[in-house]
Amino acid sequence: MKTLAILGGTGKEGAGLAMRWALKGYRVIIGSRAAEKAERRAREMNAELGDQFLTGLANEEAAAAADIVILSVPYSAHAPTLRGVKDHCQGKILVDLTVPLKPPEIMSVNLPEGSAAALEAQALLGDAVTVVAAFQNVSAVKLKQLDRDVDCDVLVCADDADAKAAVVELVAAAGMRGIDAGPLKNAVAAESLTPILLHINRAYKVKGAGIRITGLDTPV
Ligand SMILES: NC(=O)c1ccc[n+]([C@@H]2O[C@H](COP(=O)([O-])OP(=O)(O)OC[C@H]3O[C@@H](n4cnc5c(N)ncnc54)[C@H](OP(=O)(O)O)[C@@H]3O)[C@@H](O)[C@H]2O)c1
């Protein structure tokens, strides 16, 4: 089984994914700016899961120990976090689930300077890292409901077919359907759907609006 490091796994979105993958047998490392915080959150998640599934490390050590690195931090922390782990990600897949929101306008699409957070990640990390964009449209609230599948498809965008397939597999392990959504530059659209979902949450007074792709033979 692969080792996954979730940078920012101490937060809302990363924690749900971490516990789901741990339950499926992946070795999961919670990453944080502070090793003690990562260790504490890993202990809390282990207590919730009832076993010693997860460990915690500082982001740099977590990335170094992983086969696949997952980045789960707010957009304001995106570039600084990537700069800190760049050397430890070379030759690996980095899954970017960052949405380039611009608080307080989180219900409006914000296109960052590099068009998408995932494209910015690729430019910053260099060609030896394969960036895959995924999970931007999945609500943390739904992810935390560990006893059920998540009612949301996951658009997976990448320029490398093998890396995309590996992440579609991770999506399934976390209880969702991963959809090949084309090249990494399509992350512009995937990232832009999230502010729309946040608007829908407010307009319809719900917490976890998601997306479904229709017309496919692949079962949900
Ligand atoms: N929440 C959702 O429902 C949801 C849904 C889809 C996509 N997303 C995307 O997923 C990413 C993570 O979301 P989240 O809700 O999990 O965020 P979060 O809980 O606010 O933050 C996640 C982690 O990022 C680190 N962090 C926060 N501020 C930072 C800063 N200024 N500098 C460096 N690190 C910082 C913290 O880890 P340490 O303090 O341990 O370093 C924190 O625990 C975001 O890009 C978000 O848009 C979220």
What structural keywords apply?
220 residues; alpha/beta; Rossmann fold; two-stranded parallel sheet; 8 helices; 40% helix; globular; binds NADP nicotinamide-adenine-dinucleotide phosphate
Secondary structure blueprint with pairings:
Elements: E1 3-7, H1 12-23, E2 27-32, H2 35-49, E3 54-58, H3 59-65, E4 68-71, H4 78-89, E5 93-96, H5 117-125, E6 130-133, H6 140-143, E7 153-156, H7 161-173, E8 177-180, H8 187-203
Parallel strand pairs: 1-2, 1-4, 2-3, 4-5, 5-6, 7-8
The structure holds NADP nicotinamide-adenine-dinucleotide phosphate.
Task: Give a quick precis of the structure.
This protein is α/β, with parallel strands linked by helices. 40% of the residues lie in helices and 16% in strands. It has one domain: NAD(P)-binding Rossmann-like Domain (Rossmann fold, 3-Layer(aba) Sandwich), CATH 3.40.50.720.
The CATH homologous superfamily name equals: NAD(P)-binding Rossmann-like Domain
Order of helices and strands: EHEHEHEHEHEHEHEH
**Distance from first to last alpha carbon:** 24 Å
Average per-residue pLDDT, rounded, comes to 97
CATH topology: Rossmann fold
Strand content: 15-25%
Number of helices: 8
Do you know the CATH architecture?
3-Layer(aba) Sandwich
Our Rg estimate from Cα atoms comes to 16 Å
DSSP strand tally: 8
Q: What is the share of helical residues?
A: 40-55%
CATH class: Alpha Beta
Q: How many domains comprise the coordinates?
A: 1
Give a list of the ligands: NADP nicotinamide-adenine-dinucleotide phosphate
Shape: globular
Mind summarizing the main beta sheet? 6 strands, parallel
